[in-house]
């Protein structure tokens, strides 16, 4: 390393300044492009709709100890079943984000049909753009790559916020509780992981 620095020392100082200015510009430019690309709202779903069976939803709500004063955010809410069930059974407010227009419409219609449209708000929007600062509980059923991308944002949520992730874990975060259970509705096995903010880091496998 030292040898390389000495060799570079032969370049004139004004040339060095020019190189540094160019490097900084390219670096900032590249950073801006990356940031802009990543802040652009998506228009296509990052995964398909696979509903969580209602009995598994119930266990997710139990694990997070959802109460009336909680605010539930379901990022990728599908037909809105989690926020609707939470509002119906526990009387809490919920916000669902869904990028597929037909699913968002169904979620709104189901909330109305179940008499909880005053508690449930469905936003047809990209979940990666969501302002979730008011959330106290986040049920999640998203792919590992999505959880990885969301992790920095989730890590910034207020202390005491609970996240229950269905089937996929948040990478390198220690769960408070892990449960494996079989749905009476579908006969399929599900894994649920409860996390409470602030995250406790876990070493990579
Ligand atoms: C596996 S389903 C889970 C649905 C619901 N949370 C449940 O557990 O029953 C994931 C949902 O996320 C939606 N989705 C995928 N990418 C999205 C994005 N970038 N923004 C908003 N919704 C998205 C899909 O359309 C799908 O409905």
Descriptive notes:
The chain has a four-stranded mixed β-sheet, covered by helices on one side. A three-stranded parallel β-sheet has the order 1-2-3, with helices on one face. Helix content is 39%, strand content 18%. The chain has helices at residues 2-8, 13-39, 54-63, 81-90, 101-113, 144-155; strands at residues 71-75, 93-97, 120-123, 137-140, 162-166, 177-182, 189-196. The protein is built from six helices and seven strands, in the order αααβαβαββαβββ. The chain folds into two domains: 2-39; 54-196, Vaccinia Virus protein VP39 (Rossmann fold, 3-Layer(aba) Sandwich). By secondary structure, it is of the alpha/beta class. The longest helix has 27 residues, at 13-39. S-adenosylmethionine is lined by residues 42, 45-47, 49-52, 74, 76-78, 81-82, 97-100, 103, 126-128, 141.
Label the overall shape: globular
Q: What's the CATH class of the largest domain, please?
A: Alpha Beta
What is the count of β-strands? 7
Order of helices and strands: HHHEHEHEEHEEE
Count of helical stretches: 6
Number of domains: 2
Supply the helix-strand structural class.
alpha/beta
Find the CATH superfamily of the largest domain: Vaccinia Virus protein VP39
| Strand order in the largest sheet | 4-5-7-6
CATH architecture of the largest domain: 3-Layer(aba) Sandwich
Percent of residues in beta strands: 15-25%
Radius of gyration: 22 Å
